[in-house]
Amino acid sequence: MMRHRLLRHGGLFRLGGLLAAAGVAISLSACAPGPSGDTAAPSPTNQASKDISSAGQVTLTVWDQNVDGGISKAQDELNQQFHQKYPNVTISRNAQSFSDLKTTLKLALSSNNPPDVVQANQGYPDMGAFVAAGMLRPMNDYAKLYGWDGYYPEALLKQNSFSPDGKTWQGDTLFGVSQTGEVVGVYYNRQLLSSLGLQPPKTLSDLNSAMAAAKAKGILPVAFGNLDKSPGIHLYGVVQAALAGAPTVDELVSGQGGAWTDEPSLKAAQQIADWSKQGYLTPGANGVSRDDAVAAFGKGGALFTLSGTWLQQTLQDDLGPNVGFTTLTADDGKPATTGGQGLAWAITSKSAHPDVAAAYIDFITNATSAQTLVDTGNLPTVLPTGYQPPQGTVAADIATQYRDVQKANGEVPYLDYSTPTFYDTLTAAMQELVGGQSDPQQFVDALQKDYASFLASKK
């Protein structure tokens, strides 16, 4: 999982319509101290500068979760290119899986010698906690220096922003920028789908019909591994968005309205419980890793796998022209699915080289790097002008879905952004739901208990 992760909300900024206007600028105020008694993000002590060559010999320690095939290759290439441009800077890269990074990053940031640059998951559980603890450096000054406030749509920058005390997500202080765009949807095996006489599913009803047809022919409907926990967020997010629609999920995750016990969320839980009971998911999914499930799909072992666009190159390598990608529409006919942008690249507050760190982040996320990402089978946050892959390829499917979902304001939040503890609550609840240890009502009750407690604490 890349991150995944990103949102736009009714009363807050919405991503979809704004992404097309990449020239829109965000007005981010200078970092101000948090309320009395709170730990606020530290104010920058250096004057932001692009003068990297005079920094002397620097080793920049970077922690990322770009471990999937295409993005790992792109990261290595970009690191080499950065070193060629700045021979005085050596990149020391520590790449970990998303789940491992979530486990180790907080401890690393708490140390006396943290990394200089890290990928931080947006929302309250990670970025918010790091900001509240003063572990990340505000980046408003670098946004102006490098033009990020013009390159990125305002909604994307807001998703990487908090109030200086870490209490309000999508606040006025920028703490990172993202390198990749993301959409979570349905990968399908073109050959198997054609053998069943079916077209790519566009609705949840279509998906259910295709699953039933596959099961009847002895084909595993969905390759799904939930040992790593985060895949469960994506599975539930896709189904919930298709049943509830984008505006409803936006409001729920942002705390603007609704409850996790509302009918669409309960129906989504029931749908997944039914899939598990019907044998539509990989048997013993909670004991199967994400990578093993993806590999099984890549070998033709299932009709579908539900995941994000970060698997583009991996599945293209495995299945070639036989892999396709689509997203689902809600009952109103509008696209609705989880997605947005990858984890934010952030500068740690204890870094001795913030100017070098900022130059590195700009280098790996700018318009030039976007072409490197495309060339290695990845989806940049901002697509290159005129980018159009050959029709009939998974790259073309992904680019089309990314643009269509944005145009329709159909991308909805990664659900774990909802509260500081929601990642743990949701992933544990999904394992119990898929494993049959809880029923749909118990599932949504657990989510609502966490959610209501957090909302109450903010009053």
Concise overview:
This protein has 459 residues and is an alpha/beta fold. The chain has helices spanning 16-19, 69-85, 98-110, 124-132, 140-146, 148-151, 154-159, 190-195, 204-216, 230-244, 246-254, 263-277, 290-298, 312-319, 354-365, 367-375, 394-407, 422-435, 440-457, and strands spanning 58-64, 89-95, 117-120, 161-162, 173-174, 177-178, 181-189, 304-308, 323-326, 337-341, 344-347, 411-412.
Describe, in plain words, how this protein is organized in 3D.
The protein has 459 residues and is α/β, with parallel strands linked by helices. It folds into two domains: 49-181 and 340-398, 3-Layer(aba) Sandwich (D-Maltodextrin-Binding Protein, domain 2); 183-339 and 410-457, D-Maltodextrin-Binding Protein, domain 2 (3-Layer(aba) Sandwich), CATH 3.40.190.10. It is built from 19 helices and twelve strands. The chain has helices at residues 16-19, 69-85, 98-110, 124-132, 140-146, 148-151, 154-159, 190-195, 204-216, 230-244, 246-254, 263-277, 290-298, 312-319, 354-365, 367-375, 394-407, 422-435, 440-457, and strands spanning 58-64, 89-95, 117-120, 161-162, 173-174, 177-178, 181-189, 304-308, 323-326, 337-341, 344-347, 411-412. A five-stranded mixed β-sheet has the order 2-1-3-11-6, with helices on one face. Strands 7, 8, 9, 10 and 12 form a five-stranded mixed β-sheet that branches. Strand 1, helix 2 (69-85) and strand 2 (89-95) form a beta-alpha-beta unit. Helix 2 (69-85) crosses helix 16 (367-375) and helix 13 packs parallel to helix 14. The longest helix has 18 residues, at 440-457. 56% of the residues are buried. Residues 1-38 have low confidence and may be disordered.
